[in-house]
Amino acid sequence: MRHCLIVFMVFGVLIALTPQVSCAPATFWVSPDGNDSAPGTRRQPFRTLERARDAVRSVNSGRTPGGDIVVYLRDGVHRLERPLVLDWRDSGPNGGEVAYRATPGEHPVISGSTRVLNWSLYDAKSGIYQAYVGPCASRQLYVNGQRAVRARTASYPSGFRPAYTNVALTEGIKFVPTGLNPTGWRDPAKWTNPQDVEAVITTQWKMMRVPVSSVVPYPDNPPGPSDPPSGTGLLVLGEPGWTNANVFLDSSTHEPGIWSFWQVTWFENAFEFLDEPGEWYLNKNTGWLYYIPRQGEDLATADVELPLLEFLVIGRGELDRPVANIRFEGLTFSHATWLGSSSDNGYVADQSGWRLAHAGYTPNVIGHVKDLKRTPGNMEFRFARNITFHGNIFEHLGAVGLDFGTGSQGNTISGNLFEDISSAAIQLGGISACDHHPTLPRQVTRDNVISNNLIRQVAVEYVDAAGIFVGFTRHTLISCNTIVDVPWSGIAMGWGWGLLDPGSFPGVPGAVSGEWGFYSTPTPNSENRIVNNRIHGFLNVLWDGGAIYTTGRQGTSMGDALLIEGNVASGKRPLAGGNTFYTDGGSRYIKLKNNVSLDNPQGVTDFGPPPRGTDPLPYSDITLILSGWPYGSDRGGCRTYGDLIFTGNYWSNSSFFDICPYSDKGVSYPTNVISKHNHDIQGEQDVPGWLLRAAGVRKRPAEIPADRWILPVLNDAGSKP
Questions:
Q1: Helix (H) or strand (E) holding 689
Q2: Contact at 8 Å (CB) between 34 and 45?
Q3: Cis, peptide link before residue 522, omega less than 30° from 0
Q4: Secondary structure class of 507 (helix, strand, coil)
Q5: Which H or E run contains 173?
Q6: Average pLDDT, the chain
Q7: Are 689 and 683 in contact (CB under 8 A)?
Q8: Residue 145: which region, alpha, beta or left (left: phi > 0; alpha: psi -120 to 50)?
Q9: Which of 68, 135, 350, 613 has the least C-beta neighbours within 10 A?
Q10: pLDDT at position 230
């Protein structure tokens, strides 16, 4: 450790003292070619981040508070054998911080994968190759930096129809093998490892994945082509996933409805589904991995990465001992999976990555439940203080990219690139009782900044997730981010649809005031700002979402209301029904000022294509009855409370789209909506240039290579590097 030499004069005599306060940072070095028995110097670096963390911990234990500690990572792939876990002992000393940063001019990668080698041709006719990886589990595979597709069937397969015995005991998915499907997978009784197959549905704003538990074969002596089926086979689904996927009932029939698992969008993860280049299948029992190369891919030289770790870095703070004062800079976090959705819980989304994940939910007609579990982050922090992520790359990740949970305060996420992530790029705060009505100030998520990040092609696997999700927080700033190509909403903030707010406003059709309890005090939501963000290409897969989406009360009055200002949103999928600025159920105390909506035409409702005419098990005529209705505007919501101010906005459709008007005790909602000085426009030429230039990523961080900071579809709303 280095110290400053302080010299001063006492009675004419020069005296030199070495104080205990450090003036230069202690430094350690880590290299994939290092040795954990080495001293951790630049010439003799450590090999693992764990060894460097322990060295930092050792310095911290004997160090007078103050000064920085820096861990430099050298170039190359740092393959983790286990997550790097940080707690209060790894925090920066008071007045200083611990920094994990790239060596200047180098680009180290922190990876949770193993490289797959020794490929051989398995089936020349089908173009299938194989490699032995040993018994393991993963949900992702990457070839030369490109995500491969987990083997799946065609969309909306014929001959499959969910069936329910009653609300309390669901039956499963009935099937009849039919020539409308390819021979290779039309009969589930012939699937390899059917218990690894997942039934998937995407509908409106929801996504669900439920594993198959067993298969009851189709009866012998099947009927002829023109005969009605004399019986069906049955896919028995895993529990509690299947029951949870069907708790959302139709208000008229009180059977599982359109927010439940009412049709199959596709099946996933069987060898028999391998039929397209770029698809893969892992037999986790035998350890053999199968893949059909894309054109131009040579598996003899390709970089094939199989993620095995579910977490790369965990910040394990505690209520009384937070993890604090740590910086990550110039690093690439890559190749992690998440296996939670492969369990019997499956992945049953309520909304935006929040899942039903245990037994015992009460069926309801509102499409939401109170007690949910978050989709975790491959980088995950709890009770975190003053943690900074700047100039990093998050890519090829199988869960949420970066997750700051309950009690996160004073953290900064700035200048990072998030790309190719299975769920949300960034998740901040929570929705549990300690989040919406904390009993201690330390539980509140507050004073966090999410700024100048480039987010693109996220929510790849869990398409219901937002680009950025923020739960219950106070004084959060989301500014100058560019979000491109998201399947649902760009930014989602808030929770509860009014049911968790004072007075328990029933902000969902069918909801009853008080059904989630009565609260006399407000949630922490207040003083939050969403400003100068650029969102392009939203609702690319689902519908019923927006560029910026809110729910629930966002302040205690207009004095601490949520400010949504200077955001530019464009390029919504044309047919996707949704509102550009979507103040949904219970939204209250929001100011929307100087925002721009470009090229976001009104879409339609869409419940998928109707069954093919000769389908032996046509599931419903819902697609004919409910699909194709006009849906959405540049602003709107369902059972919005009100207390909204719209001023100085630029859009082509100024009407408030209210799909579900609501009145109670003589009051029609939304109430107290003020619109003034807004502008109806025909196109970009009608918007002031200063407003367009204010939104979006302005500067490429020096830590990220220029070729990784390409800003697609950015006109004057952003600046290129």
A1: helix 689-694
A2: yes
A3: no
A4: coil
A5: strand 170-175
A6: 92
A7: no
A8: left
A9: 613
A10: 61
Q: Determine which helix (DSSP H) or strand (DSSP E) holds 563, and give its type and residue range.
A: strand 562-565
State the residue for tokens 């989301």.
478
Q: What tokens were used for 164?
A: 């329910």
Average the pLDDT over 73-89 and give the result.
Answer: 98
Determine the 3-state secondary structure of 301 from DSSP. coil
- CA 264 to chain centroid, in Å, comes to 23
Mean pLDDT, residues 262-280 taken together: 97
3-state secondary structure of 295: coil
Q: For residues 430 and 553, what is the distance between their CA atoms, to the nearest angstrom?
A: 15
- The distance in angstroms from the start CA to the end CA of the chain is 39
Q: Where are the alpha helices (DSSP H) in 407-503?
A: 433-436
Chain position carrying tokens 């996504």: 207
Supply the pLDDT for residue 95: 77
SS3 686: helix
Handedness of CA 685, 691, 693, 698 (dihedral sign): negative
Contacts of 523 (CB under 8 A, 6+ apart): 436, 437, 472, 496, 500, 501, 552, 553
Q: Which residues partner with 10 through β-bridges?
A: 13
Burial of 43 (0-12, 13-18, 19+ CB in 10 A): exposed
Tell me what pLDDT residue 170 has.
66
What stretches of 27-141 show up as alpha helix (H) in DSSP?
A: 49-61
The pair of three-digit structure tokens given for residue 687, joined into one six-digit string = 């918007």
pLDDT score at 64: 59
Q: What is the number of other CB atoms lying within 10 angstroms of the CB of residue 716?
A: 16
DSSP 587-654: -EEEEEES-EEES---EE----PPPPTT-SS---SHHHHHTT-EE--SEEESS--EEEEEES-EES--
**Secondary structure of 367-403 in the HEC alphabet?**
CCCCCCEECCEEEEEECEEEEEEECCEEEEECCEEEE
Task: Give the pairing type, strands 142-143 and 146-147.
Answer: antiparallel
Residue type at position 352: S
Cα 225 to Cα 238: distance, rounded to the nearest angstrom: 32
Residue 240: which of 372, 368, 357 has the closest Cα? 357
Residue 66: both structure tokens together: 């103050």
Contacts of 224 (CB under 8 A, 6+ apart): none
pLDDT digits (tens, 9 = 90+) for 316-331: 999 999 999 999 999 9
Tokens standing for 585?
A: 């159920």
DSSP state for residue 50 in the 8-state scheme: H
Q: Are 401 and 376 in contact (CB under 8 A)?
A: no
Query: Phi-psi bin for 514: left (phi > 0), alpha (psi -120 to 50), beta?
Result: left
**What SS3 state is found at 164?**
strand
CB neighbour class for 647 (10 Å; exposed up to 12, middle 13-18, buried from 19): middle
Q: For the chain, give every domain's residue range.
A: 6-106, 488-609+616-687
- Which alpha helices (DSSP H) does 4-145 contain, by range? 49-61
Q: Measure the CA–CA gap between 164 and 174, rounded to whole angstroms.
A: 10
Q: Is 625 exposed, middle or buried (0-12, 13-18, 19+ CB in 10 A)?
A: exposed
pTM greater than 0.90 (yes/no): yes
Write out the two tokens for 136: 């393991």
Q: Kindly report the number of other CB atoms within 10 A of residue 182's CB atom.
A: 13
Q: For the residues of 409-431, what is the DSSP string, one character each?
A: BS-EEES-EEEEESS-SEEES--
The predicted pLDDT at position 721 comes to: 36
- In the block, which residue shows the tokens 């927080």? 473
Mean pLDDT of 295-304: 98
